[in-house]
Amino acid sequence: MTLRRPGRPAPGPLEAYAAEFDDRFASLAQRRRFREYLAGLLLPRERNKTPTALAGAEPVVRAQAAPVQQLRFFLSESTWEAEAVNARRLELACADPASRTKPQLAVEPVDAALGAGVPFRAVVADCFYGENATFEGALRAAALPCVPALKPAGGVWAPAEAAHTPEAAARELTRDGPGAPGDWTPVVRRFRDGHEETRWAAELTFGPYGPDRPRRAVVATTDPATLPELSTWYPVTDLPRPGAPHAAEAPLAPADPAEVVRLYGLRNRVEQGYKQVKRELGWADFMVRSDRAIRRHWHLVCCAFSFRWRAWFAELGSPTAPAEPHAAPAAAAAAGRGGMACLSPARPVAWPMTLRRVRGWLDPGTFLWRCWRAWSNAPPPPELQALLHSVGQGRPLNLSLPP
Predict the structure, then answer these.
(1) What is the DSSP code (8-state) at residue 235?
(2) Which of 352, 348, 292, 301 has the alpha carbon at shortest distance from 325?
């Protein structure tokens, strides 16, 4: 068996992570481009992360330079399997003893909030969790109220003539116009910036769901006539309806449709970090046409995303890790309004912080090396070499400190 030829290592801890994927690439050139692509995705976002930007080349003028063309070839034509790379990424994540599935991860902060004595009105989540038996079973076992959602076309067992999906049940509701809302009730949502948004809400009856049943389904939309896909929600809850036969004996405080809609509207806070990081890493910045190249770009973004968390938690376990200021627990909203408090561990996890820590050593190391290589092919002088070695070991430079 021929030994792999070593290439120039990636900066800092990125090399150890990238080396885990070496057997997924057949050539030294592929392994080099993999490291360069990940480093480019993790660097600060000054422009869209096209191959020109990832290679650090000047737009237009240097678009045909060799480093740019090498990344384009790696993405579009090179012979490597994106699925195999993604399988290795998942394998590395699952090998971590702390690895959990999304439903398991969702239950853990709820347990932490209960252990810390944090009050909350209900657990809110999107439609992925509304149809997940693991998540719902854990909450039901703990007698915790929840407001997840259903997919519009998610079907249930029902008589042939009855509605089988939330969307079908919503279209059976009556409404004769703005002056005759019928089954619909206006719900006004007020935001922090002062603006208001009116949605129309109604109780749904289909399958196991109903206003007076243990599980309720509600529809909330901006237009009851057309039920726009992007602005129509189908939250479900075990909070009883005010006036329901079992409301007086239920351990949970009743919630009318307006309250259910308000609670479900808080779910976007769950996405804080994930959406922003995907944008920072260039999820939609591909400048390729083939389906294979686009999928490869997405898998490489996922690898960069996974490395960011791996580097963060590895640093948490380091005895020499620099201390971050501790943040006191703060409530996302007052308990009386149903908000859920945000727990802050000894070192709070926030997406700007995790990305900034990686860029603290990756950005100066990459920038200094590019500048020197543009100036000379000779080895750097000892002082610069010492600085490159320091950041190359993952020691960040705090660029916010005064000189």
Answers:
(1) B
(2) 348
The type of residue at 185 is T
Task: Map tokens 């968390």 to a residue.
Answer: 309
The residues spanned by each domain of the chain are: 1-119+272-349, 122-269
In 120-164, DSSP assigns E strands to 123-124, 146-147
Phi and psi (nearest 5°) for 329?
-55, 135
Q: What is the DSSP letter of 154?
A: -
Q: Would you write out the chain's pLDDT as a tens digit for each of its 403 residues? A: 466 677 778 888 899 999 999 999 999 999 999 999 999 999 987 788 888 889 888 888 888 999 999 999 999 999 999 999 999 998 887 776 666 666 666 677 777 777 878 788 888 887 767 667 777 777 877 788 889 889 998 888 888 888 999 999 999 998 877 777 889 999 998 877 788 989 999 999 999 999 999 889 999 999 999 999 989 999 999 999 998 888 888 888 899 999 999 999 888 765 666 677 778 898 888 777 888 999 999 999 999 988 988 887 776 654 344 443 332 332 233 233 333 333 334 445 567 888 888 888 888 888 888 888 888 888 888 888 888 888 777 777 766 655 5
Q: What predicted TM-score, i.e. pTM, was given to this entire model?
A: 0.63
Please answer whether residues 24 and 30 qualify as being in contact, where contact means their C-beta atoms are separated by less than 8 angstroms: no
**Which residue in this structure is represented by tokens 């006191």?**
328
